[in-house]
């Protein structure tokens, strides 16, 4: 298994939307996404540059998306 790719927030948002998440709210510089069917919630920081791999892993864990699924959603 290879490492997670370095991606910016736009790609993470796109992948979450393909996985069934919808934009719920914005709190400061973070967008909150929910998947009401699965009762899941996660937030994505809207900052310049790439999202760190550690933070990306936490977002995927909250969204219950595996690293392989995420690569397919990109």
Automatic annotation (TrEMBL):
Record keywords, A-Z: Endonuclease, Hydrolase, Nuclease, RNA-binding, Stress response, Toxin-antitoxin system
Entry similarity comment: Belongs to the HicA mRNA interferase family.
Species: Candidatus Zambryskibacteria bacterium RIFCSPHIGHO2_02_FULL_43_14
InterPro entries per the UniProt record, alphabetical: HicA_mRNA_interferase, HicA_sf
A Pfam family assignment: HicA_toxin
One Gene Ontology molecular-function label: endonuclease activity
Name the record gives this protein: Toxin HicA
Domain of life: Bacteria
């Amino acid at each position: 298994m290879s490492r997670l790719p370095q991606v910016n927030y736009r790609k993470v948002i796109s992948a979450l939307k393909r996985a069934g998440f919808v934009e719920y709210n914005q709190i400061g510089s973070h967008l909150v996404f929910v998947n009401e069917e699965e009762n899941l919630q996660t937030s994505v920081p809207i900052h310049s540059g790439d999202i760190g791999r550690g933070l990306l892993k936490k977002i995927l864990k909250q969204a219950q998306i595996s690293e392989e699924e995420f690569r397919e959603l990109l």
